[in-house]
Amino acid sequence: MIAKHTKTGGDPPPKRYASRAPQPSSSDINCGLLRYSIRFFVHRANRFLSQDWTSSPLHQSTHLLRYFAFALVGANPGISLIALARYIVIDKSRVSELVDSMEREDLVERRRMSEDHRSQGLFLTPNGITRLSIMSKEIQVYEQKIQELYSDEEHQQLIALLNRIHA
């Protein structure tokens, strides 16, 4: 016979959350096999940066992936969709959606390349140049708190080391 808990008798329900152990701080965690895992620490950094971005006021007006695409088009006039997708490591269809939305807002335009009429390059419009300048200033203020964690030399070294993974 299985006893059921009721107000009048039976076994009480389990106390799942009554006696939680105190949570160790990050410095108390032993990473074990993960202590040398680049994937693990890149994942942690990426999650932190993503959560930090999502909680920022800039997140409401700027999707970070869109900004990446926008900034790369500005720095590389004539870049192809394929090259842009490869560099930011997303599907060509996803980068195409980003570019389509930026075209509708008169921020970028596609132009046929003179060497090969089948291929198109991406260029900022005059409106796009202005908007990118404004966005870059806003994002630079946000990025400053991350950059302050590192000296200029460390910052350059970190970017170089992370770039080596994609190369």
User: What is CATH's topology name of the domain at 63-166?
Assistant: Arc Repressor Mutant, subunit A
Shape: globular
Summarize the biggest pleated sheet: 2 strands, antiparallel
Uncertain residue ranges? 1-8
Verbal overview:
- With 167 residues, the protein is mainly alpha-helical.
- The protein has a domain at 63-166: Arc Repressor Mutant, subunit A (Orthogonal Bundle).
- Helices cover 54% and strands 6% of the residues.
- It has a two-stranded antiparallel sheet.
- Strand 1 and strand 2 form a beta hairpin.
- Helix 3 (64-75) crosses helix 5 and helix 3 packs across helix 6 (126-147).
- The longest helix is centred in the C-terminal third of the chain and has 22 residues, at 126-147.
